[in-house]
Amino acid sequence: MNNQFWRINSRPDGTDFTSALALIEEAMPDIGPGEIRVRNAMLSMDAGTRLWLTDREDGYQPPLPVGAPMTGLVVGEVIASRAEGFKEGDLVRAFGVWGAFSQVDAVMSGAVILDPSVADKRAWFGPLGMNGWTALWGIEQTGAAKAGERVLVSAAAGATGVLAVQIAKLLRCETWGIAGGAEKCRFLTEELGLDGAVDYKAGGVGAQLDVACEGGAGGFDVFFDNVGGPVLDDVLTRMNHYGRIAVCGLLNDYGSGTRTAPREFDQILMRRLRVEGFFSPDFMDQGERLTARLKGWHEAGQLTMPYDVTRGLENTLSAYEKLFTGGNIGKVIVEL
Ligand SMILES: NC(=O)c1ccc[n+]([C@@H]2O[C@H](COP(=O)([O-])OP(=O)(O)OC[C@H]3O[C@@H](n4cnc5c(N)ncnc54)[C@H](OP(=O)(O)O)[C@@H]3O)[C@@H](O)[C@H]2O)c1
Predict the structure, then answer these.
(1) Which residue among 156, 207, 224, 239 is least enclosed by CB atoms within 10 Å?
(2) Is the minimum distance from the CB of 323 to ligand 1 under 6 angstroms?
(3) What gap in Å lies between CA 58 and CA 145, rounded to an integer?
C-alpha cells in the first residue's frame, strides 16, 4: 500500500515552503507492534511547527530531520491496529504525517480516541484540541487572569488567540487583542465582543495600546503573547505592577531567524512582573479535564471558532503559509 505525503527536502527560507517540501509517494512499511495506521481526514496547520523546520537544536523539541515526512496533528480513522486499545474504525487524533495516511506508534504519537458524537470534527483541532488547552492554560494558569483584570492577547485572530480572548471574556476579564489589519480588528471587537483591538500593521502600536490604558485604571494585568518581537516592548511599558506575561509563542522569530530580546527587559523588575513560558505537551495528561471544560463552553455556544479550510493534500503548503502571512482568521485546516 502506498502513501502520498509531504517530505522535508531542505530547511525552508522564510515562507518559501514550496522549495523546501515535496509531495512524494512511497510504499508504507508493514504495521509494527504498538502501531496504528490512520486514514487522515484532516490535517491541523500549527504555527509552532515552523520551528521544527529550522535547524535550531535549542528549541522545545529537536528539529525534524531533512528527508523526513512533515509531522503535524491529524484526525482520521484507524484502518489497522497493532496497538492495545485501538481498533479499526476508531476516530483518533494523533501527531501524524502530512499525508494521506499516518502510520505511527500509538503512545509516542499521543494518539487519543475521539468521541464520534461531536458533530463538527474540526473542533478536535480547535476548541477541543491543543489550541483550546493552550488558550485555557495560558489565560487561567500561567496568566492567572482574574475577573475584572485587563487581559491582552497577541495574534488574537488566529486559532490560539481566538480561544484565548474568548476564555478571558468568559472569566469576566476586560479583553483586548492585537492583530494584523482592520478586518481582523473589526472581527475581534464586533463579532467576538472584545473591549478593544490594536492593529499592529497600522503602526503606532504604543499609542493604540495607550487608548486601552487611558480608558480605565493603569495598563494590562495579563499579556498572553503569541508573537514576541518589538511589540513585546510596547506592552512591557504598559503592564500593571505584578502583571503576568504568559509566553505562548514567538511568531516573530520562527521563520525570520531573529531572537526576541526585549529592550524594555528592566520593566520586569520595575513593575514586578512574572514572565513565564508554557508548553501544551507538559500538561497533556490533563487533556481530558481541560477538554471537558472547553466542551461545556463550546456546547453552550460560548466558545466559537472560525475555520479556514483548504481542500486537498496538494494544497497543504498554501494553507500553511497563511499562518505566517496572516491570511487566516481562526483555525487553518486541510481536509483530505
Ligand atoms: N505554547 C504552546 O504550547 C503552544 C501551543 C499552540 C500554539 N502555540 C503558539 O500559538 C501561536 C499561534 O499559533 P497558531 O497555530 O494558533 O496560529 P494562528 O494564530 O492561527 O496563525 C498565526 C497568526 O499569527 C499572526 N502572525 C504571523 N506571523 C506574525 C508575526 N511575525 N508578527 C505578528 N503576528 C504574526 C498572523 O496573524 P496577523 O494577521 O494578526 O499577523 C497569523 O494569522 C504561535 O506562536 C504558536 O507557537 C503555542
Answers:
(1) 207
(2) yes
(3) 30
The residues facing 77 across adjacent strands are 39, 91
Distances (CA, A) of 254 to 5, 109, 128, 246: 23, 23, 25, 18
Q: Which residues contact 328 (CB under 8 A, 6 or more apart)?
A: 157, 158, 159, 308, 322
- pLDDT of 240-260, one tens digit each? 999 999 999 999 999 888 999
Same domain, 96 and 6: yes
Residue nearest to atom 37 of ligand 1 (CA): 326
How far separated are the first and last CA of the chain, in Å rounded?
18
Q: What is the mean pLDDT of residues 96-118?
A: 96
Mean pLDDT score of the chain: 96
What's the 227 CA to ligand 1 centre distance in angstroms? 7
Do 310 and 316 form a contact (C-beta atoms < 8 A)? yes
With beta carbons less than 8 A apart as the criterion, state whether 238 and 220 touch.
Answer: yes
Same domain as 257, residue 236: yes
pLDDT tens digits, one per residue of 9-68 = 999 999 999 999 999 999 999 999 999 999 999 999 999 999 999 999 999 889 999 999
Of 52, 152, 167, 226, the one to substitute when testing ligand 1's pocket (max ligand atoms within 8 A of C-beta) is 226
pLDDT computed for residue 146 by the predictor: 98
Is residue 291 assigned to a domain? no
Does any domain span residue 98?
A: yes
- The CATH number covering residue 244 comes to 3.40.50.720
Structural domain range at position 26: 2-126+305-335
Q: Is the beta carbon of 246 within 6 A of some atom in ligand 1?
A: no
Give pLDDT, residue 149. 97
Same domain? For 122 and 134 the reply is no
